[in-house]
Design a protein that fits this description.
The complex is a heterodimer of chains A (316) and B (553).
Chain A (H helix, E strand, L loop, with lengths): L1 H28 L6 H4 L6 H11 L5 H14 L12 H36 L4 H15 L2 H15 L16 H35 L2 H8 L4 H38 L5 H10 L3 H29 L1 H4 L2
Chain B lengths: L11 E11 L8 E11 L3 E5 L6 H9 L8 E8 L2 E2 L5 H7 L4 E4 L13 H11 L5 H14 L5 H4 L9 H13 L5 E5 L7 H18 L2 E6 L2 H7 L2 E6 L2 E7 H6 L4 H9 L18 E14 L8 E14 L3 E5 L6 H8 L7 E6 L2 E2 L5 H4 L6 E4 L13 H11 L4 H14 L16 H13 L5 E5 L7 H18 L2 E6 L2 H7 L2 E6 L2 E6 L1 H6 L4 H9 L16
Parallel strand pairs in B: 3-8, 3-9, 6-7, 7-8, 13-18, 13-19, 16-17, 17-18
Antiparallel strand pairs in B: 1-2, 1-4, 4-5, 9-10, 11-12, 11-14, 14-15, 19-20
Helix pairs in contact in B: 3-4, 3-6, 4-6, 6-7, 7-19, 10-16, 13-14, 13-15, 14-15, 15-16
Organism (chain A): Sinorhizobium kostiense
Protein name (chain A): Peptide/nickel transport system permease protein
Subcellular location (chain A): Cell membrane
Chain lengths: 316, 553
């Protein structure tokens, strides 16, 4: 188990290194460079630009900039935003809670509903329910998230007026209920596609386990169907799903980016888009590294959880 | 069909009358089992024997009330300890399962839930039927683990199945089945997946427990050796019908139905006689192996989590041209690794493989490639070893064509070979799924022969086949060797099969050859203790005096 962890950790570090190099290079390949927006400002002279470049160290070769940035990153200094000079980590921190709230709630929804649909689809294979779930998953997978967002706003905000069309809370009302009210639509919209994916995988995993010999053993022991399902089938079926949950995180993150934009949710997705617009390179790189670390960590956690649950890995 | 003696309900723990189970439309038969009747007398072991597809497992599942909804019981009656099974509600059936009738299965590796401890899985039976308290259930489980001869029951209670060997898992299954002292125990091929020495232990355990508790056992098997070992009475099934039934003595010694006679004739026996060597073909030694070794390493050496498994240790032998060497051993003995090394599907760590005098062990893949046609392999699983998307013609010709044979010639030779191995030449354009297991193995043999090999390596080539098919394939291999003078290495776990076809036998244990000699020596006068143990464990082959209750066949 210790060897396994060390192994995975060292792999993760290499991965982060590669992500940071690619991110850094690609970002600097964008025409115009970090100071492009100032070029449009008539009050900035070329001299001003050169001085700014000098100040920010942007006139050095790219590799030197990278090394400098990476070395500071390792030491905990993620740089400062070009926009307001605030430390990058603070900027990310301000938006982090909103995004985690959205991602967390929609992940819970996706897993809970997806698991239920998947198991029911498998135990009632080829039933009307199974058929509808299959068609529903196809629909959810083939329609983009932003469209569901717009549809939701049109129906529930504009027509019915049940749910707010955007933002995280009503200014002046900071109650938990108010937050929740604002959270419902974006988290469901973000969850939709993941419910679809999760339910399909869960259905397959459950069918796999149901055809295993030990389920027949459980029947031969005279257990009730309910206990067979809960005790023998679901546990074994969820095992591969934990890894899937870890792997799905990047797509929840990108989904959050779209959803946040549609619902003007003040999270990291919005921050990312805004920062790109302002060519705020330190924040963009910071967000890139932050999400990379998040994804790597979650995959690591998923592997550890599998190892804890599965005695075959835990004890060997 | 032989007449059934009339027995009263009290004498029979289980009685099946006129049972017919339908198959869904579009299958090769209309019924899974058709109008079968038999009795399992109290305190006896009844063996149901038949080849694959004979309906024996369907019979067991019907009695357990575990038939899939797709195949319903259409007529007949089953009485279990005075209760009617056919027509009982699912709830009633569930109450009987595990309490009145228990079942153990073929594959102990997949029959236990990998995420639950052994103890939990045993106490679950008691809990499902509302027996005992938490503490008393635990005590009962430990008592059961002791009863089935598992070491350290207190510790075993908390073990997960993956820690246990195949034989130990089967003991856990038996403990589970015995938890509520059922009237009837159904054992569906419980020893088929086990090594021969483990099989002998499990058979003895079942027999002992059956006697001690006076339990009635319905034992499903395809192996007449096993029948001879434990049966009191026998039911022979073919294609869903019972063709013969009677006492074990009667059925084994004087079978009346031609199918039974054929089955019994097909059972491979230890001949103890050596194979009549054919005239010398070619010159002397074709293969000489010296000090061959292979060690598997897994995990990472860097982080100290490496596992090192020596699979083949210092193996040396010689094979004369036109002869067959049997490599026999239990699972994990290294026999399959040896086969893979010889055909260079894996590289060896040390030692020499002299094929026609040339050391091939050190050759690189490109250097070895021209030699590949000369060494060919026949695989175990006739279902997995043929590409389902290729026609038989493609499967047969793709290799030789890749080695430079013109397609037209390859096609002609393929057609000729197909009829040679006993298939219709029309098989050329068909796909693997259209053939039975035995036919596919013939295709596998034809595929290997397309290269006109000097050496054939057959890895468990007949293990997945029914006995009657097994006998045919062995005959075919023998015939081919006599015609083409090909040398063969025949890897098997089954000593009886090895004794049929091999000139010499090498017995492997833990990566080493522990004994090497002609069949007469191996079977009649084994030199090593391990070989003696192996030979003694073969079901149905022990001298009569050691088994008072069973009969010799």
């Amino acid at each position: 188990m210790r060897g396994f962890l060390l192994n995975r950790l060292s792999q993760s570090l290499v991965l982060l290194l590669i992500v940071s190099v690619i991110g850094f290079v690609v970002l600097n390949l964008i025409p115009g460079g970090p100071l492009a927006q100032f070029g449009l400002d008539p009050s900035m002279t070329q001299d001003d630009l050169n001085r700014l470049k000098e100040q920010l160290g942007l006139n050095r070769p790219l590799w030197m900039q990278y090394l400098d940035w990476a070395w500071r990153l390792v030491q905990g200094d993620w740089g400062h935003s070009f926009r307001d000079g605030a430390p990058v980590l603070d900027v990310i921190g301000r938006h982090l809670v909103a995004t985690l709230l959205l991602m967390g709630s929609s992940t819970v929804i996706a897993i809970a509903i997806g698991t239920w649909i998947g198991i029911r689809g498998a135990t009632h294979r080829y039933s009307v329910f199974d058929y509808l779930a299959t068609v529903g998953a196809m629909v959810a997978l083939s329609i983009p998230t932003f469209w569901f967002g717009l549809l939701g706003i049109y129906v529930f905000s504009l027509r019915l007026g049940w749910l707010p069309a955007g933002n995280m809370y009503t200014i002046g009302d900071g109650s938990a209920l108010n937050y929740l009210h604002h959270l419902i639509m974006p988290s469901i919209v973000l969850a939709l596609v993941h419910v679809a994916i999760w339910s399909r995988y869960m259905r397959t995993a459950t069918l796999d386990v149901i055809s295993q010999e030990f389920v027949k053993t459980a029947r031969a022991k005279g257990l009730s169907e309910r206990r067979i399902l809960m005790k023998h089938v679901v546990g074994n079926a969820l095992l591969p799903m934990i890894t899937l949950a870890g792997m799905q995180l990047p797509s929840v993150l990108t989904g959050a980016l779209v959803t946040e934009t549609v619902f003007t949710w003040p999270g990291m997705g919005r921050l990312f888009l805004d920062s790109l617009g302002y060519s705020d390179y330190p924040v963009v790189m910071g967000l890139l590294m932050f999400s990379a670390i998040l994804v790597v960590l979650c995959n690591l956690i998923a592997d550890i959880v599998v190892a804890i649950i599965d005695p075959r890995i835990r004890l060997s | 069909m032989a007449a059934i003696e009339a027995v009263t309900i009290d004498e029979a723990a289980l009685s099946v009358r006129g049972l017919t189970v339908d198959l869904p439309k579009g299958m090769e038969r209309t019924h899974a089992v058709e109008n079968i009747s038999f009795d399992l007398k109290r305190g006896q072991i009844l063996c149901i024997i038949g080849e694959s597809g004979s309906g024996k497992s369907v019979t067991a599942n019907t009695i357990m009330g575990l038939l899939p909804k797709l195949i319903p019981v259409s007529s007949g009656a089953i009485h279990l300890d005075g209760r009617t099974i056919v027509g009982a509600s699912p709830k009633e059936l569930r109450g009987l399962r595990g309490r009145i009738v228990s079942m153990i299965f073929q594959d102990p590796l997949s029959a236990l839930n990998p995420l639950m401890t052994v103890g939990e899985q045993i106490t679950e039976v008691l809990m499902a039927h509302g027996v005992g308290t938490k503490a008393s259930r635990r005590n009962r489980a430990i008592e059961l683990l002791t009863e089935v001869g598992l070491p350290d029951p207190e510790l075993m209670y908390y073990q997960y199945p993956f820690r246990l060997s195949g034989g130990q898992r089967q003991r856990v299954m038996i403990a589970m089945a015995l938890a509520l002292e059922p009237t009837v125990l159904i054992a569906d091929e419980p020893t088929t997946a086990l090594d021969v020495t483990t099989q002998a232990q499990i058979l003895k355990l079942i027999r002992d427990i059956q006697r001690r508790k006076g339990m009635s056992v319905m034992f499903i098997t395809h192996d007449f050796g096993v029948v001879a070992e434990i049966a009191d009475s026998v039911v022979v099934m073919e294609k869903g019908r019972i063709v013969e039934q009677g006492s074990a003595e009667q059925v084994l010694k004087s079978p009346t139905h031609p199918y039974t006679q054929r089955l019994i004739a097909a059972v491979p026996h230890l001949t103890g006689k050596d194979r009549v060597p054919q005239e010398k073909v070619g010159d002397g030694t074709i293969l000489k192996v010296e000090g061959l070794s292979k060690t598997y390493r897994s995990g990472s050496a860097l982080f100290g989590s490496q596992r090192i498994v020596p699979a083949v240790k210092e193996v040396s032998f010689e094979l004369a041209a036109g002869r067959t060497l049997g490599v026999v051993g239990e699972s994990g003995s290294g026999k399959s690794s040896l086969g893979r090394l010889l055909i260079k599907l894996q590289d060896s760590d040390g030692g020499r493989i002299l094929f026609e005098g040339r050391d091939i062990a050190k050759l690189s893949e490109t250097e070895f490639r021209p030699l590949r046609p000369k060494i060919q392999m026949i695989f175990q699983d006739p279902f997995a070893s043929l590409n389902p998307r290729s026609t038989i013609g493609q499967i047969l010709t793709v290799g030789p064509v890749a080695h430079g044979m013109p397609y037209a010639q390859a096609r002609e030779e393929a057609r000729a070979l197909l009829s040679h191995v006993g298939l219709d030449a029309g098989a050329f354009g068909r796909y693997p799924h259209e053939f039975s297991g035995g036919q596919r193995q013939r295709i596998g043999i034809a595929r290997a022969l397309m290269f006109k090999p000097k050496l054939l390596i057959a890895d468990e080539a007949v293990s997945a086949l029914d006995v009657s098919i097994q006998a045919q394939i062995l005959k075919l291999l023998d015939q081919i060797q006599r015609e083409t003078g090909v040398s063969m290495i025949f890897i098997t776990h089954d000593l009886r099969v090895a004794s049929q076809i091999c000139d010499e036998i090498a017995v492997m244990q833990k990566g080493r050859i522990v004994e090497h000699g002609p069949p007469s020596q191996i079977f009649l006068d084994p030199q090593s203790a391990y070989t003696r143990e192996l030979v003694a464990a073969i079901p149905g082959e022990r001298p009569r005096s050691t088994r008072p209750a069973a009969v010799n066949i």
